[in-house]
Write a structure and sequence with these properties.
The protein is mostly beta strands. 7% of the residues lie in helices and 54% in strands. Strand 16 and strand 17 form a beta hairpin.
Length: 361
């Protein structure tokens, strides 16, 4: 009888324990699986438990550069023994988006790391450039933006992962800014207050009286889109201002992916609103123009040609031209080649080229 009671007691205990476990399972929290967020594009997903959509993109690449003016084409410094060098770079961009009653709420950060080292003009080793920095970051709510990103004045230069052809003379860089913009019916207007210390030349420093003021008007006219920009800033010795016009023709109706772009800028107070390839020669006419044409042969092959020209009152002319070809053997992996010539101001002209291997994600 003792053994029988023991067995019956054990069975009862197992049943009670099993019932308790079943009760515990019945109240377990459901798993919140990661879901695709198609409201902002196919690279976004919902952060579990929130209505925030996240996106992580980036690249890893290696450039093999060659020519007689590698580090700064067209100058007399930074010539390399053997006229070649390698440069490795990686970038990671993180973006968070959600919808509010005030419009989209956006946060964006782009990190870049590179491995590079130049030579001085006498052939000795220069600065070691193995570093990692945050290259771009901003927050926006509806039509309001704050942070460090492409200038309101610029015309679409600093896309997160640009190709080798970066529009030459008219690359004006990111600026710390506060911006308000509005767009409707194919038209848009934006006004930005930008930090003058990131634009002013060392020989013409900012007075810090007030931020630089940049404004733009954009329009879309079917296959043609454009932007008219104006900028004004106060400096220690004189004020500075400039205007710029950019036009893009979408030629996809002729051949998918084809595009023609023309940009021109002008100022009579200095090159700050015109070109980084001109020295500050004081009062006089500064101007620059650029044209590029891109053709897509098929999903694997594409090419572009571009030329740019800039002029200052004393430093003279600076011009460059290049041909870029890109091969995409598989999705998200490209092999690009660029061959160009640059004659910067009064220095001897230089041929240069790059072969790039890039894995994007």
């Amino acid at each position: 009888m003792t053994i029988k009671k023991l067995l019956l007691g054990s069975a009862a205990a197992m049943l009670v324990g099993g019932a308790a476990q079943a009760a515990d399972l019945s109240v377990a929290e459901p798993i919140d699986y990661v879901r695709v967020c198609d409201a902002f594009g196919n690279t976004y997903w919902y952060s579990p438990g929130t209505d925030t959509c996240l996106s992580v993109t980036g690249y890893v690449r290696l450039d093999a550069r060659f020519g007689n003016g590698i580090a700064n084409p067209g100058t007399q410094s930074n010539y390399l023994p053997g006229d070649w060098k390698f440069n490795a770079r990686a970038a990671l961009a993180v973006q968070a988006r959600s919808m509010t009653e005030w419009g989209p709420l956006v946060g964006y950060m782009r990190f870049e790391a590179q491995g590079d080292r130049d030579f001085n003009g006498d052939g000795t080793l220069g600065v070691d450039a193995h570093d990692a920095t945050v290259q771009e970051y901003y927050a926006s709510l509806g039509n309001f933006l704050v942070g460090f990103t492409e200038s309101t004045y610029a015309y679409g230069y600093n896309v997160p992962f640009r190709v080798i052809n970066n529009f030459g003379d008219l690359t004006l860089g990111n600026k710390t800014q506060v911006r308000f913009g509005f767009a409707a019916g194919g038209w848009g207007v934006a006004v930005g207050l930008e930090d003058p210390r990131e634009r002013a030349l060392s020989s013409n420093p900012a007075t810090m009286d007030f931020p630089d003021i940049a404004a733009r008007l954009t329009g879309n006219f079917g296959v043609i889109s454009g932007q008219l920009s104006a900028g004004y800033g106060s400096r220690l010795f004189n004020d500075t201002w400039g205007v710029q016009l950019g036009l893009t023709a979408d030629l996809s109706s002729i051949s998918a992916g084809d595009q023609l772009r023309v940009v021109a800028a002008w100022s009579d107070t200095g090159p700050e609103w015109v070109s980084g390839n001109l020295a500050d020669d004081g009062t006089g006419t500064y101007w620059a123009a650029m044209a590029s044409f891109t053709h897509v042969f098929n999903p694997n092959w594409g090419a572009s040609i571009f030329g740019s020209y800039a002029s200052g009152p004393i430093s003279g002319d600076a011009w460059q031209a290049a041909f870029v070809a890109q091969f995409t053997p598989v999705t998200n992996f490209t092999i690009s080649g660029e061959l160009g010539y640059q004659d910067k101001q009064t220095n001897t002209g230089a041929f240069n080229g790059t072969i790039r291997f890039q894995r994007s994600f």
